[in-house]
Amino acid sequence: MIRKTEKDQPVPLGHSPLTAPSLLCALILALAMLGPATQVRAQTTNLAFGAIQQDTSLPVEVTADSLSVSQQDGTAIFTGNVIIIQGEMRLAAPRVLVVYAEASEGQQARIARLEATGGVTLVSGPDAAEAESADYNVDDGFVVMRGNVLLTQGASALTSDLMRVNLEDGTAQMDGRVKTILRGAD
Question: Structural domain of residue 164, as residue ranges?
Fold first, then answer.
């Protein structure tokens, strides 16, 4: 049932109309709940990601259903239920291309980059992100997630077109039509 307020605005029965001061208070409360590491802007949002700083020099463990290696271009393609673990970070995708850096004389080739596609999930501590694809540059410690990015942190969720995660300092930056729902106290 709908009742009319003094300004003839329809309001569901049992609810109070939102006034400018109550809406402002709810917005301030919601922003305060996001914490000091979050800066809310129209197109870019900076925030914390992961519970700890990631040591990008740790070994990378890869598990998959199949592997195809190309000696010509120094790549390997893992397909089927690919799971990548490095320290506290977990990355899962249907397909991951591993690009190796050129090996120095007497040294084994090392992983330079991982390109995950087909729907990617990245988990670090209590935080998780999903996207259509992700590129992890092991040398600089950055993961760039693209396409329908969804970041969940506890009860909070943010979406964007692109997210850059700096694993070394545990921060992330979201760009391109950033969206979240801010909820007031219940």
Answer: 37-180
